[in-house]
Amino acid sequence: MKVFKALIITLAAGCFSLSAIAATEITQEQAKNSNYEKIGVVDVTKKATQSTTDISEGLSKLADEKGGKYFVIIAEGGNNEIHAAADVYK
């Protein structure tokens, strides 16, 4: 039983630590006032029924894959689908 509890705690901690390394959304002002290096642009398209959190999480994941620590949403819009683009910084 102790092993089972330890396994559950370890898995739960792993889930939280994965989200801790995700790229963080910042403002354009924060990007301008920092020494962050722009490393590219990412974009994502989601169904309009999805939340803005889903869009932000999608951009964060793509920024991670590009090696970024931060991203700034530079465009967002659409009708049946929401398209968003973000600058990626490290």
Automatic annotation (TrEMBL):
SUPFAM superfamilies to which the protein is assigned, alphabetical: YdgH-like
Leader sequence residues: 1-22
Domain YdgH/BhsA/McbA-like residues, every copy: 36-90
Pfam family, one: YdgH_BhsA-like
Family matches, as InterPro entries: BhsA/McbA_stress_biofilm_assoc, Dodecin-like, YdgH-like_sf, YdgH/BhsA/McbA-like_dom
Origin: domain of life: Bacteria
Keywords, sorted A to Z: Signal
Protein name: DUF1471 domain-containing protein
Organism: Limnobaculum eriocheiris
